[in-house]
Every structure is written in structure tokens, then in C-alpha cells.
Design brief:
It contains 10 helices and 8 strands. It has a 5-stranded mixed beta sheet, sandwiched between helices. Strands 1-5-4 form a 3-stranded mixed beta sheet. With 255 residues, the protein is α/β, with parallel strands linked by helices. The protein folds into 2 domains: 144 residues, 3-Layer(aba) Sandwich (Cytidine Deaminase, domain 2); 98 residues, no CATH class.
């Protein structure tokens, strides 16, 4: 479960649980669509359990991508990368330094994977509606899951909206660990004023996969809400994301 550290003492309590589960694709699934399909080996795959079929598909797809810059090392690098990071989605979310630790001196591989992440996120970002009638629009959820779900550390993203709920800006705030996120509420509101935003949507991820809001999540949200009320800014929602699940403070009536 994630928690927030902040220098603002908000108030709020939490007794409910979240149950919003989404089957929409994460970044890894979009990555699988982006790569060329592997050669047909249906006879062999039918003998494997589903999780091994998926792992084989990921390795094959990643190896085909890497073959464009490292043909002789493509298969071995694909195995090493997936063993290190666990999935294509998580691999594409790590830093260039983390990729170099596995890819070694092969800078072309690092640059290719970094560029691939940007292309895939741009695709998801372009599909997201510019006017957010609903904070849980499925295209928005897919974008958030793709950009945040696979990350191994917590992060916060804030969507700034104008009075007609058109997206003004989408920015990251704070630094985090796998279980804790450090964000100053005033930095978010300061940016909202700079952008002349009329509303905000808070989004953060839970790397462990459980998207039920923690007590610290609720306390932080209540402190943001109080500041928003003082500044005549609407807090539309706080969404918690993992690779395959999500929850919304608005849907579970915490806002």
C-alpha cells in the first residue's frame, strides 16, 4: 500500500474499500501489438501453460525489435532484460541507467528501447480525449495504466483542466519509493494557479497492484481538497492505478 509524506496536515478518514477493476491493456500489451508478430509455433505453444506462452511471446516480440540494432545478441538480450525487469511494460518504464546495467555497452539497444517507450506513450496519449467528460473514461484509464501502471516506484501525475474540462497540461510531481510518495500539496496548487486551471485530477500508482486507497492517500487527498476549495479550484477525482486495476475516489464516494 502506498503512503504520502507531506508538510500539510489535512484531515480525513477512510473506512471503505475500492473495487474498480479494469481489463484494459497496459503498456506491455500495447508493446506486444507494436512489435511484429512472432512466427507461428502453435504446435509447441499448445503444450505450454498460459503463463509460459505469454513469456515466450514477450521474449519473441522483444527479440524481433532488438534484432534491428543487435541481430546477434537479440535473443540473449531479450531473455536478460525480461529476467531483470519481469515484463516489457516495466522494462520500458525504467531509466536509461537501469537498461545499461543489463545491455552493457550496447548503447543502440538503450536508445531503441527509450524511443519505443516514447512512441507507445504518444500513441496512448493521442487516443486520450482532450475534453474529459468523465474522469474514468476508458481511454484515459488506458493512458494512465500505460504510463504509470508498470512502474516499480510510486509517482503522482496531475491533469490540469480548464473551466470546460479541456486538458491544459499533464505533469508529474514528487519522488517516490515502492511504498511511499513525497509530494507537497502547495506545489500542485501553485502550478494550477500558474496554468490558470479551473480543475485538477490527481493520479498516482501502487506498484504492488492493490489500488485500495490507504489512510495516507485519503489524508493527502483531503488536504488537497481543502486547498482547492480555498482557491476556487475543483478537485474532480483522485485515481489510483496499477497495471490491470484502478480505483477512483469519486466512484467509491470519498470525494
Amino acid at each position: 500500500m502506498g503512503s504520502f509524506a507531506t508538510n500539510y496536515c489535512g484531515r480525513g478518514s477512510y473506512r471503505e474499500t475500492a473495487g474498480c477493476i479494469d481489463s484494459s491493456f497496459g503498456l506491455r500489451d500495447y508493446a506486444g501489438r507494436f512489435f511484429l508478430p512472432p512466427a507461428d509455433r502453435s504446435d509447441d505453444r499448445d503444450l505450454l501453460p498460459p503463463e509460459e506462452v505469454e513469456s515466450e511471446r514477450d521474449r519473441s516480440a522483444l527479440a524481433q525489435l532488438l534484432a534491428s540494432v543487435a541481430p546477434e545478441q537479440a535473443h540473449s538480450l531479450a531473455v536478460l532484460l525480461l529476467n531483470e525487469f519481469g515484463s516489457i511494460g516495466r522494462m520500458l518504464c525504467v531509466s536509461e541507467e537501469a537498461l545499461r546495467r543489463v545491455a552493457g555497452a550496447n548503447e543502440a539497444v538503450v536508445k531503441l528501447l527509450t524511443a519505443t517507450e516514447k512512441v507507445l506513450l504518444a500513441q496512448l496519449r493521442n487516443q486520450m480525449p482532450q475534453k474529459l467528460i468523465s474522469t474514468t473514461d476508458q481511454k484515459l484509464i488506458k493512458y494512465l495504466q500505460g504510463s504509470m501502471g508498470p512502474r516499480s516506484t510510486e509517482m503522482m501525475r496531475v491533469l490540469f483542466l480548464d473551466n470546460a474540462k479541456y486538458l491544459i497540461s499533464d505533469q508529474e510531481f514528487g519522488t517516490g519509493s515502492p511504498k511511499r510518495l513525497f509530494v507537497q500539496p502547495r506545489s500542485i496548487l501553485k502550478r494550477a494557479l500558474e496554468l490558470d486551471a479551473s480543475g485538477i485530477i490527481l493520479v498516482h500508482n501502487h506498484p504492488g497492484g492493490d489500488t485500495i486507497p490507504s489512510k495516507s492517500d485519503v489524508k493527502f487527498t483531503m488536504s488537497i481538497k481543502m486547498l482547492c476549495n480555498e482557491l476556487d479550484i475543483s478537485l474532480h477525482d483522485h485515481i489510483i492505478i496499477s497495471s490491470n486495476h484502478w480505483s477512483s475516489f469519486r466512484k467509491i464516494k470519498l470525494l
